[in-house]
Write a structure and sequence with these properties.
globular; nine-stranded mixed β-sheet; 6 helices; alpha/beta; 232 residues
């Protein structure tokens, strides 16, 4: 079972607008290759949406996602985002909850993330938080940094190519951490591992970061939910 489906809170820590957009597009690609049949709740803080933009319905369709399955909610404050997520976790029709917020004044702390983690476990719904700002100590199951990545060897010259990201798993309660670069091919709805440069966001020049094992990145397309997630 993919780490992204593990029950609990998964934080995507963002230092700038590029990281926010990269994290949002990566999470959207995860939805594209999943077999979710229920409602996806995506809650965005209004200020963050104004600064970094919002997910496009047409873009979701090109990713193979039906926008009608996603309930988009805009909330004024970061605390409102967390409140809406908690309420969504109580709904039997919701299969995954996603939040985008500015982590001002340490909103994402041990207390708030522990509450979400407990609700996530009780409802069998994973929670993904795209957080703008530095994150301190939390009860999150994993913490990631996502950067845009320039894919090499794209078959059509002078084109941007498919979406690609450099993923840094910087916290993981299961103990595995490291970096990996992947691209997403929407025509086949799958991820492809890319060659990782010797430097990354979390490792200095000249050092070689450990790579995240493929099973941590892979999303299980055969996920079934019948009274729970089943064994991981």
């Amino acid at each position: 079972m993919s780490a992204f489906l593990d029950l609990g809170v998964h934080i995507f820590e963002c230092e700038n607008a590029a990281h926010i957009m990269s994290s949002s597009s990566f999470v959207a690609s995860l939805l594209a290759v999943s077999s979710f049949g229920g409602t996806i709740v995506w809650v965005s803080q209004t200020l963050l949406a104004h600064e970094s933009g919002v997910i496009s319905g047409q873009g979701l369709q090109e990713f193979g996602i039906d926008p009608d399955r996603i309930l988009f909610v805009h909330a004024k404050k970061a605390t409102d985002v967390l409140w809406v997520l908690e309420q969504a976790l109580g709904s039997p029709s919701v299969e995954i909850a996603i939040g985008e917020l500015k982590n001002d004044k340490g909103i994402l702390d041990l207390k708030s993330t522990r509450r979400l983690s407990l609700r996530s476990a009780a409802s069998d719904i994973p929670v993904h938080l795209i957080s703008a700002g530095k994150t301190g100590a939390t009860a999150a199951l994993s913490r990631w940094k996502v950067e845009p990545f320039s894919r090499s060897g794209f078959p059509w010259p002078r084109t941007l190519g498919w979406s690609a990201w450099r993923l840094a798993l910087i916290k993981n309660k299961k103990g595995i951490y490291g970096d990996q670069s992947v691209s997403f091919e929407p025509t086949e709805r799958r991820f492809v591992s890319e060659k990782l440069p010797a430097t990354s966001a979390t490792h200095p020049q000249g050092s070689t970061p450990p790579q995240v094992p493929a099973e941590i990145i892979a999303w299980d397309p055969a996920r079934r939910r019948a009274g729970g997630l089943g064994p991981g």
